[in-house]
């Protein structure tokens, strides 16, 4: 079967890591008898340079016409890149937010899993790591602060900026249901994270999540305040199964969770709506500090491609094969620089490789 995949290479390390994920899709197609045709879509800084805006209507139409979209990352150095001299709605990130909103991608799944082989790259103590951990961050992606009212103006002679955080019950209910559905397929525990001791939007969040929980009597629900959650992720990450949270909290907590799995370069993600369509991207950014050096970890993007196979194309066997190949390569001791063991004396027991070599090694094992 032929699948149409939209590809957003984007900025910084984006093109480098997407190239490796395509390599993996192509190898999977070769082995299992599928073909993937790629449609390159411009978004982010490269789109600004080519068209003046971070996402054109044509680009949105291209994404809509695909079975799924694979993405690298967008954006530049936010203090030095000229893109950040532009008005906010013309900056690279605005393109990504517009795409998420236009495609109604309200459910963002970010699986944070500690590979047995990467225990030595994890900054936590051995007794905290224990048998390892496996959590799914379910982040609401089309509401909250990211899509509120934004104003910067002078008020009574004082420069003032305002961002509003709004959620309605429907937005909360649909993401909560997704969270509980996922929990039913996992260890049946949901930790709903909010700031209900301060925010009205969090109090509504908690009320609606409680209502949804009644439809899932087998799932254990707990509520946790976001500041405590940030601390618990480091103190005892094994306690978490599904973390269900709003947009901004999910953004911050997922970067934190990624680091306890060894590196942001390992954290994949899927952004889904009510259809089979999805946008698949690593959770990290364009890493301008290492762009062009050939050292970025392509695994998060490769695992995002595996999620694409699983969620949008129903190719479970193929997704399993990709995930297995990643595990195999780690077991054989290959590491990009970001997942090298922390301790000097353990470094000689593994082999450091670059972005393309890591992609080749994984492809060979499919
Ligand atoms: P970042 O995630 O790009 O980088 C943070 C740190 O992690 C850097 O040291 C970087 O080298 C490292 N890192 C990230 N991905 C890596 C990988 N695959 N392999 C090895 N190391 C990796 O975050 P930042 O520096 O705060 O942001 C840079 C730009 O990326 C900004 O413009 C930001 O808006 C954008 N951004 C885009 C996305 C996206 O496209 N989805 C996500 C996050 C940030
Ligand atoms: C992410 C990124 C984006 C976000 C930025 C680039 C808009 O940090 O996907 O986590 O904040 O959602
Ligand atoms: Mn982020």
From TrEMBL:
Protein name, per record: 3-isopropylmalate dehydrogenase
Organism in which the protein naturally occurs: Petralouisia muris
Keywords: Oxidoreductase
EC number(s) given by UniProt: 1.1.1.85
Top-rank EC class of the record's enzyme: oxidoreductase
Keyword hit for Oxidoreductase: yes
Species classification: Bacteria, Bacillati, Bacillota, Clostridia, Lachnospirales
């Amino acid at each position: 079967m032929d699948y149409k995949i939209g590809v957003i290479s984007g900025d910084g390390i984006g093109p480098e890591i997407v190239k490796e994920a395509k390599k993996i899709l192509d190898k999977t197609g070769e082995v299992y008898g599928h073909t993937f045709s790629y449609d390159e879509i411009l978004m982010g800084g490269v789109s600004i340079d080519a068209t003046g805006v971070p996402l054109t209507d044509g680009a949105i139409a291209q994404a809509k016409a695909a079975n799924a979209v694979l993405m690298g990352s967008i954006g530049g150095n936010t203090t030095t890149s000229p893109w950040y001299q532009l008005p906010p709605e013309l900056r690279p990130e605005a393109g990504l937010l517009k795409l998420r909103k236009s495609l109604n991608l309200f459910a963002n799944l970010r699986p944070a899993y500690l590979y047995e082989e990467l225990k030595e790259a994890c900054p936590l103590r051995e007794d905290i790591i224990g048998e390892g951990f496996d959590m799914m961050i379910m982040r609401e992606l089309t509401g909250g602060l990211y899509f509120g009212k934004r104003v910067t103006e002078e008020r009574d002679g004082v420069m003032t900026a305002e961002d509003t955080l709004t959620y309605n019950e429907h937005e909360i209910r649909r993401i909560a249901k997704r969270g509980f559905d996922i929990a039913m397929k996992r260890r049946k525990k949901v930790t709903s994270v909010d700031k209900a001791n301060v925010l009205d939007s969090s109090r509504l969040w908690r009320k609606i999540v409680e209502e949804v929980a009644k439809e899932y009597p087998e799932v254990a629900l707990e509520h946790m305040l976001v500041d405590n959650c940030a601390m618990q992720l480091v103190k005892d990450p094994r306690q978490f199964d599904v973390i269900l949270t709003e947009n901004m909290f999910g953004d911050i907590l997922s970067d934190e969770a990624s680091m306890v799995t060894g590196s942001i370069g390992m954290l994949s993600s899927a952004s889904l709506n009510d259809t089979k369509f999805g946008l698949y991207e690593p959770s990290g950014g364009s890493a301008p500090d290492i762009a062009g050096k050939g050292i970025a970890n392509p695994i998060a993007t490769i695992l995002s491609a595996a999620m694409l196979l699983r969620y949008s194309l129903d190719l479970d066997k193929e997704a399993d094969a990709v995930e297995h190949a990643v595990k195999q390569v780690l077991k054989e001791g290959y590491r990009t620089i970001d997942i090298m063991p922390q301790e000097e004396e353990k470094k000689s027991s593994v082999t450091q490789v670059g972005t393309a070599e890591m992609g080749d090694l994984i492809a060979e094992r499919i």
